[in-house]
Amino acid sequence: MSTTPNARGTQSDDPDAAPWWRRAVVYQVYLRSFADANGDGTGDIAGLRSRLPYLADLGVDAIWLNPWYASPLRDGGYDVADFREIDPRFGSTAEAVELIAECHDHGIRVIVDIVPNHTSSEHEWFHAAVIAGPGSAERSRYHFLPGRGPGGSEPPTDWPSVFGGPAWTRLNDHPDDGEWYLHLFDPSQPDLNWDHPGVHAEFHDILRFWLDRGVDGFRVDVAHGLVKHPTYADLDDRPPHVQAATVHDHPFWDRDGLHDIYRSWRSVLDEYDDRMMVAEATIHASRYPLYLRPDEFHQAFDFDLLRAEWSAKDVGEIVHRAVATAASVGSNPTWVLSNHDVMRHATRFGLPHGVDLATWSVTGPHDLLDAGLGRRRARAAALVALALPGSTYLYQGDELALPEVWDLPPEVLDDPVWTRSGHTEKGRDGCRVPMPWSADGPSLGFGDGPPWLPQPASFAELSVESQTADPDSTLELYRRAIALRRELLVDDEQVAELDLGADVLAFERGAGLRSVTNMGASPIAMPTGELLLSSDPALAATAVELPPDVTVWVR
Ligand code: GLC
After folding, report:
1. Which of 163, 316, 391, 548 could form a Cys-Cys staple with 420, CB 3.0–4.6 A?
2. Which residues are catalytic?
3. What is the rounded average pLDDT of the residues 52-56?
4. 415 CB within 6 A, ligand 1
5. Band of pLDDT at residue 5, cut at 50, 70 and 90
C-alpha cells in the first residue's frame, strides 16, 4: 500500500485503502489544559504547536480539539459566541490555520468541535433576540416561550437541564417581557431552534468556513439534541436521559427529525476530499445505526466502554455489540475510555463496582479508592482499546495514566455542574487539570505561570519528562502499543473473539495477534506464543501465569 504523503498529510494514494478515520488513533486535545505558551495559565494554540513533535512521536493519526472559538468559557468553550473566531486566550484564526497546516506536515489530521445545539448567551443572535422582544424574527432562532402558572411564573415545560435545575430561564432583566428561553445545559447556552431555516444555512456556512481552512473533520457536540418536540410536550414519566433505554418520541433527545440535518451536513462534507464527522450522541446503543447510515455520520463515539465496569463479561458484550453495530451499517467501531466529561479511567477503575461516580468526590468514602489498582487496570484497558479494530480516541493525559484530581478545592472549581447541582457534584474539572510536561517549574512545564486549575504534587512523577525513556512507564507503553498497532493491525478490520474463560477478555486480530486480559481475581495460564507487549512491566517473557488486571499481546 502506498503511503506517499500529499498536501493534506499522510493520506494514501491507494484508491482501495480504507479512509483514514476508520483505523485512526485520535488524540483529544483539551486546549485550555494542554500547553500554555504565553504564561497566562490557559493553554493555547502556540503551546499546542510547540508540542506537535511529541504527538507525532507518540504516533497518533489525528487530534480532536475541543471548542476553541470566541467564548465567555462558562462551559469550557461549549458556549460559543462566534463560530468563526478563535478566542483570543487561545490565539487567532490565522494561528489556527497555521496549526492545521503544521499538523498536516507531521501527518496528523485535525478534527474540530462544532456546537450546533446552542450558542453562548453572548452570541450576537442571542443579544438581538433579547432586545427584539416576544414574537420577533430574532427570537425565532431560539426557543422562547411564555411561562405557565400565575403571571407565567413557572417554566413552560418540565424539562430539566443536564447540569441540574430547570432547562428554562426567564428573562428577568426584562420584566414587561417575561418570556422564558430553553437551555438544555447552562443558562449561558441558549438552545437554537433547528426549525429555523436561517440556523441551517448558518451551520452549512460554518462547516464550509472550517473545511476551507483545512480541517479534516468535525466532532458534533450533543448530536442527539438539536430537534425539539414541535409543541414542547412535557417529559412526564419519561427519563431525562436516553442512553439507558430507547424512548419513543422523547421531547428533546434522539428525535427522528435529526437525521435530515446530518444528511445535509454530509453532502457539504462530500464536496471536499477525505473529510469526516463523528457524533457525540449519548443515546441507547441500539440507535447508533440510524446516525451511521452511509449518508450521515462517518462514525459515532461509543460510550459504553467508558461506562463499563471492570468485568470481562460486560466488556466482552460491549465489544461484540459495537463491532456488530458498526458492521451492520458499514461504519467502524470507536473506543473511548476517557474524555473531558468523565472521571479519568485511571481513577474510575480503582473504585469498587456500584460507586456513584458523579457524587463520590463530594460524599466519599474516599478510602474506597485503590489508585494503584486503577493505574494497573488503566494500562491493561489501553492495550484493549488499541488492539481492537476501528478508531480509538485517547484523551490527553491517558498516555501518562493521569488520575482524576477529585480533591480540587471548591474555590477553584469552574464547571457549572458544581453550582447547578447544589454542590452535590464537583463536575468535570478533575479530569481537566493541565498536563504535566516536566517534573518541576511553576506548572510542571505547562507554562511559565500558575495554571488555571492547580496540579497535584503527584503529577510531577507522572510528567512527560519523568516517563520518557523509562521502559516501564505508561507513556512508553502507549508509544510501543501505537507503533505495534500501526505495524501489525492497521490494514485489517477483522476481530475474532476467543473464549479463554469467564474472567478473560480475549480476541484475535490480523497477523495472528491475540490480546488477552485477565479481568478476574486469580492468575490464569499465560497464553502461548511470542509475548509482544504486556501492560505489566514486571511480567517476564517466560512467565507461566498471567496475573489479574493485566493485558498481554501475544503472537
Ligand atoms: C457535550 C460536551 C460537554 C458540554 C456539553 C454542552 O456533552 O462534551 O463538555 O458541556 O456538550 O455543550
Report:
1. 163
2. 221, 271
3. 98
4. no
5. very low
